[in-house]
Structure formats: structure tokens, C-alpha cells
Amino acid sequence: MSNQLPVINLMGPTASGKTALACELYDHGNYELISVDSALVYKDMDIGTAKPTKAEQECYPHHLIDIITPLEVYSAAEFVEDACRLIDDIHARGKTPILVGGTMLYFKALLEGLSTNLPSADYAIRAAIELKGEKFKVSDKQRIIRALEVYKITGRPITQLQAEQPKNQPYRYDFHNYALLPDRLELHKRIELRLEKMWEIGFLNEVENLMKKYDLEENLPSSRSVGYRQAIDFLKNSDLSQESERQMKDKALFATRQLAKRQYTWLRSLQETHSFQTFFTINQAQEDLRNLYG
């Protein structure tokens, strides 16, 4: 019998229904939920991140939500450290952790480990690189920027540094990986409906209040979150006409669809090297996971 601790990883693109699926599992078993979302870590960023409401969090508590302010930075390495600590704590309480979210870099770091001692992000250097990075292919942009950032800091290629350094890999866990990958046309409809609801319940007001409370800088990771970047640019513009607002909303919709596309790409890459069960509809996922864990 394996001594590895079971961990359920539930991954999917934005608006795919993975959070609702995790909550249903929570209702039918002895679980705790850990958020795997680089935007949900920020306090006061609620509507634009589709963060579970306070009432929903009371019914379905999530770890790693609201842990830093939008002025702070949270790395993949910090996520792995926090997630491993929480996984061990949850098992010590006799429960099984469900990790749910769409930040595939976090999942990859947890599954494969991270090279240690790479330099931390330097956001002044990164901002300068981004100004020249408009022609980068969207799917490769973050990887290229990080590689250039490391080279400017260390003078050495990131691949060379990674090859030289040991990785922190949590071998003691038995990962059960599930991917929720709905049809893209259906997902696009869900994204559009979600954004429409966000605008209706006050997303723009939320961003305006964030700008006043925190005086957000554009090069902070929180400011670059999908939807927030477009709203910040709009609110800083002198043209606040209805036409300008409509263009901003269109840009936010396009950016969210691009995010989903990148998440699909990340997931397929992970599926090449890790064992996965993939669901193409929420109903299929509900039925199969209920049979496995209900």
C-alpha cells in the first residue's frame, strides 16, 4: 500500500464550472478546498476575479483566498510552500484536499517542482521588457519575459540556471488530476455571460475603489489581472464616454478569451507528462466524480 497522501487536483479554464464542481464534491465527502488562483489571493479584488462571495465561503471555505493586498506579490514558489503545508494540515485532520483553480503555473509547480534559488521578480526590469514585448506571441509572452528578466538580473540563461539547480518536488503526494475542458464555443458563451454579470453588479466601481484605496501601479501583478487592466486603463483615460466604455468591455472580453486559450494550452502540456482524466461537460464530471468520491 502506498504511503503517499492523496490530493485531488481539479483544473480548468476560467468560467468552466470547476469551482461549482469542487463545491459539490465538498458537500458529499470529507474534504477541504484550496484555491489555485493567482487573482483570488488579493483582498478587495472580488467581482473581477469571480471570487466566491462571503456567504459562499462560509458554506465552502477556501484556503489561499484574500491572503495579500493588491500591492503585494505572491509567487509560484510561495504557493507551493503554502499548498504543501495546507495539504499536510488537511490530512492531519483526517480529510482530503481538493485543489481547484485555473492558474496552471501553480499546478505545474506543485506537480513538477520549482528550481530553487532563481532570482525573484524585478518588476522595474519586467516593466521595461514588457514595453518592448508587444510583438511576443501571446502564448509565449510570460515565459519569454521571465527568461529575459532572469538574464538581465544574472547575466545567464534561465535554462542553464534551471539545469544546475535541484528542484523542490513533493514526492509524498499521490495526485489525482482532473481537467474540465468544455467546448470552446460553450465556454465563450459562459465567459460573456459572466462578464456581463460582473459589469451589472459593479465591477467598474470595484476597480475605481481599488485605485483610490491602493493607488495601484500598472506594473504590479494585481493590476495586470484580466479585466482589471482594461478597467484601469479606461478609468485613467480622460474619455469616459459610452463608446469608450463599450470598447473597454470588448477588450476585457477578448483578454478573458485569450486567458482561456492559454489555460487550454497549459492543460494540454500538463496532460502530456501527467496522468489525467478529462471531462468535456460539467454533467459528465459531476457523474464520474460523484461515483469516485461521493
From TrEMBL:
Q: Which reaction does it catalyse?
A: adenosine(37) in tRNA + dimethylallyl diphosphate = N(6)-dimethylallyladenosine(37) in tRNA + diphosphate
Tell me the GO BP annotations in alphabetical order. Answer: tRNA modification
The family database entries (InterPro entries) matched by this protein are listed as: Dimethylallyltransferase, IPT, P-loop_NTPase
Q: Which cofactor does it need?
A: Mg(2+)
For molecular function, the Gene Ontology terms on record are: ATP binding; tRNA dimethylallyltransferase activity
Q: Is this entry keyworded Nucleotidyltransferase?
A: no
Q: Which family does it belong to?
A: Belongs to the IPP transferase family.
Q: Which protein is depicted?
A: tRNA dimethylallyltransferase
